[in-house]
Amino acid sequence: MPMFNSSRIAAVVRANLAYIYLALLTAGVLLVHGYHPGVEDAEIYVPGIKRILDPSLYPFGAEFFLNHARLTLFAQTIAGSIRLSHLSFDMAVFIWYLGCTFLTLLACWRLSVELFRESSARWAAVTMVAAVFTIPVAGTALYIEDQYLTSRSIVIFTILLPEEHRARF
Predict the structure, then answer these.
(1) Nearest to 91 by CA among 149, 169, 143, 150
(2) Which of 18, 47, 94, 137 is the most exposed place for a label (fewest CB within 10 A)?
(3) Predicted model pTM
(4) Rounded to whole angstroms, how far apart are CA atoms 143 and 134?
(5) pLDDT, tens digit, for every residue of 60-107?
(6) What are phi and psi for residue 70, nearest 5 degrees?
(7) What region does 21 belong to: left with phi over 0, alpha with psi -120 to 50, or beta?
């Protein structure tokens, strides 16, 4: 009996093709838009996470970022995952960023499945969203998806998930 059954492998690939395309699109987002940790309002999020990991950091002036950081579970969640995974701070934040980007594109895909019948229209919708990630939303200075990890990165895909899929996550 052969070690690898090519028809079985092909079936697995077909079943997961959307996820493979989404992973490639996530890599495309990273290559096109880049990853810029520590810019813009990350100056509030990053010190909040680092302070949870090491309370001796920022002995004065911490009220600047703690006023924002203590209002959400974002900093505690990221810091907790860093402690559990034993990854470096930068690597863990990068992985969170990639995961949030992938999940945002997955949510867009699932929403496009609800809206369009043709596969090409679905992929056009998801690709268009990926292309405009860093264009500010009309009248605001906020991007659809920032080029760094923020609490919005986690929230956006949960907002976009169609109602029937929210219970799965």
Answers:
(1) 149
(2) 137
(3) 0.84
(4) 5
(5) 877 777 777 777 888 899 999 999 999 999 999 999 999 999 999 999
(6) -80, -10
(7) alpha
